[in-house]
Design brief:
It comes from Cryobacterium algoritolerans. The protein is an alpha/beta fold. Helices cover 47% and strands 14% of the residues. It is globular and about 95 Å long.
């Protein structure tokens, strides 16, 4: 059998922690959830089973060529009938064992998939109920917390007098603690809990307003989806914007440099490597064209957040766009990408491949869902896009690190079962770097995962790479870079 050996765990969730090179694949219209190597082994066994069936038919044709077949009881060592019979038995055993092993692997992957979906559903239900219950008792908790907070504040101030620390030292203290505990934010439990917490905010709000829980649940993430992460983000904007924070502005877009030649990407590694780095003042969008005008195909690469200030800056890839994008309220980055695509010459009917990291992946998903352009493929890396349903029939791959908290900000996954999800725990066995925040979210980490995906024999990953070549062709094209800038506030 082919493929990398499965290390650590044959399917996720086993008793032993996996290697940092393990890829866990799910979705894509399938109920299977397993490592890429296990799924590749199952596909190889199915191929071997089909080959055995084909050889059985060929042997039947060979047998029919004997015009005077010798009956079985009279076979001798030189009779063709005995040779064909022996070959048939051996090939039948190969086919039977290959099929049985493939069935066992698929059954294990399906069993884990059912268990994972049940756990996600029950965990989500529990989280939603807990959020609703907290919302119901929130007024009483606030009243009860006032004396405790006052006492705690007095104690904190007195301890500061004794130790000589100042209130302004709190951020530095928190930073030191995170430096001393690098796994505090990279433990996979933290993103999983955060995903539930983000999805439960609307339930807590429903509890405060005394909306019955069955109604809240029916309208929420696991119901019709009218309430959820999107409405929670809209609530954050409603509170912040009167304070002058998270405000949207107009954007202008300009080309950075002239067009340059580019070769078509051949896999996930190429796609991830061409996503613009999140650098303040740099280009945020890269557009590639393959083929002549009128029959061109395009790849649009969208970078991640470059500015984390909640105030208005000149950078559209900022915290304001992050929240506005989740709220689906016309983020500056979304509008900038639309304008860049139009300026680059993308026509509405042209096939487009959307690629993005972090906020760029969320924008790419929303562009695909909007129908503004003819998106035919999409690949996102570390994007909080779980609630964005892309159109059916799209080749869609979402890459998420299980120790990255940013994809969890998209909440519990939506109802989009056609999207192929590839997960990897970057620091399962590797030490966590202490010199940068959220190392599992770094574009460099996702580029490494993309290279592992290219090396994977998993059939659906191979199919995506093959479809990419079909859409773009093999001839060189051209590339242009674009930068969006926020307009100054009046």
């Amino acid at each position: 059998m082919t493929g990398r050996p499965v290390t650590g765990r044959p399917v996720p969730g086993g008793g032993e922690r996996g290697s940092s090179t393990d890829l866990v694949v799910s979705g894509g219209g399938s109920t299977l959830v397993a490592t890429d190597a296990l799924l590749a082994e199952a596909a190889t066994l199915r191929t071997l089973q089909a080959a055995a069936d084909d050889w059985q038919e060929r042997l039947e044709q060979i047998r029919s060529l004997d015009s005077e077949p010798v009956p079985a009881p009279q076979w001798t060592d030189g009779d063709i009938g005995l040779s064909v019979f022996g070959a048939e038995r051996a090939i039948h055993q190969v086919g039977e064992r290959s099929g049985a092993l493939a069935d066992a692997l698929v059954s294990a992957a399906e069993g884990y998939g059912r268990a994972e979906r049940s756990a996600e559903y029950l965990g989500g239900l529990g989280g939603f109920w807990l959020g609703y219950a907290i919302g119901r008792v929130a007024p009483f908790l606030v009243l009860a917390a006032v004396p405790a907070l006052a006492a705690g504040a007095i104690g904190w101030l007195l301890s500061g007098v004794v130790t000589g620390s100042r209130p302004g030292d709190a951020p530095a203290t928190a930073a030191r603690w995170l430096a001393q505990n690098p796994r505090a934010l990279t433990n996979p439990i933290v993103p999983a809990a955060l995903r539930l917490l983000v999805s439960s905010v609307d339930d807590a709000a429903a509890g405060v307003t005394a909306l019955p829980f069955p109604v809240s649940f029916a309208l929420g993430d696991q119901g019709v989806g009218l309430l959820g992460v999107t409405t929670s983000a809209a609530g954050v904007l409603a509170v912040a914007r009167p304070l002058g924070l998270l405000r949207e502005t107009g954007v202008t877009v300009g080309r950075v440099g002239g067009p340059t030649p580019a070769g078509p990407p051949t896999g996930f590694g190429d796609l991830a490597s061409r996503i613009p780095a999140a650098v303040s003042g740099g280009a945020q969008v890269r557009v590639e064209r393959y083929g002549p005008a009128g029959s061109a195909a395009w790849v649009v690469y969208i970078g991640g957040t470059a500015e984390w200030s909640p105030g208005v800056t000149r950078e559209p890839w900022d915290l304001s766009s992050n929240v506005a994008a989740v709220a689906e309220e016309g983020a500056g980055s979304y509008r900038a990408v639309l304008e860049a695509m139009r300026e680059a010459g993308v026509q509405r009917a042209d096939p487009v491949v959307q690629v993005g990291h972090s906020q760029g992946g969320l924008v790419a998903s929303q562009l695909a869902a909007s129908g503004e352009f003819n998106t035919v493929m999409i690949a996102t890396f570390g994007a909080p896009n779980g609630q964005v349903d892309v159109p059916a029939g799209l080749h869609a791959v979402s890459v998420e690190h299980s120790d990255d908290i940013v994809p969890a900000l998209g909440g519990v996954g939506g109802r989009d079962e056609d999207r192929l999800v590839v997960r990897r725990e970057v620091f399962a066995t590797e030490p966590v770097p202490v010199d940068r925040a959220l190392p599992a979210h770094a574009l460099s980490a996702y580029r490494e995962t993309a290279r592992l995906m290219d090396a994977s024999p998993e059939p659906r990953l191979r199919e995506f790479r093959s479809a990419l070549e079909t859409v773009l062709g093999g001839k060189p094209g051209s590339m242009s870079r674009w930068r969006g800038v926020r307009a100054s506030e009046n």
